[in-house]
Structures are given as structure tokens and as C-alpha cells.
Write a structure and sequence with these properties.
Layout: H1 2-20, H2 33-39, H3 53-62
């Protein structure tokens, strides 16, 4: 009887320490620039892929070197 009581008390104590009564640290959600910073820098693009076909065509029409 005494062993059963100690077992139950031990289970309750473990549960309180792990899940129920342990202090939890609040982490606010990342907002704005924080989310961009957490994701890291975007992959660097190769020079031919900096502009899409339409933009390259417009730049060529304005006289910019496209190649």
C-alpha cells in the first residue's frame, strides 16, 4: 500500500516537473524584418537571370547593353 502511494506521488511529481507546473518561456512571434532575417539572405542570382525576358527586351529598346 505504501509503495503504491509513493509510486503515485512520484508520477504526479514527474508530471508536474515536465509538463504541468514547469515555468514556460514565452517566445513572441517574429514580425516584419525579423522574419526576413531569420530566413537568411536570398540566393544570389546569375547575371543573365537578373531580369526576365520582358525586362531585358525593354532595356534593349532603351539602349542598355543586355548581354
Amino acid at each position: 500500500m505504501r509503495a503504491n502511494l509513493l509510486f503515485v506521488i512520484g508520477c504526479i511529481t514527474c508530471w508536474c516537473m515536465n509538463a504541468g507546473c514547469a515555468p514556460k518561456v514565452y517566445h513572441a512571434p517574429a514580425m516584419g524584418a525579423e522574419t526576413k532575417f531569420d530566413k537568411g539572405l536570398p540566393k544570389e542570382k546569375h547575371p543573365p537571370h537578373l531580369f526576365n525576358k520582358r525586362e531585358r527586351k525593354e532595356m534593349a529598346r532603351m539602349g542598355y547593353p543586355v548581354n
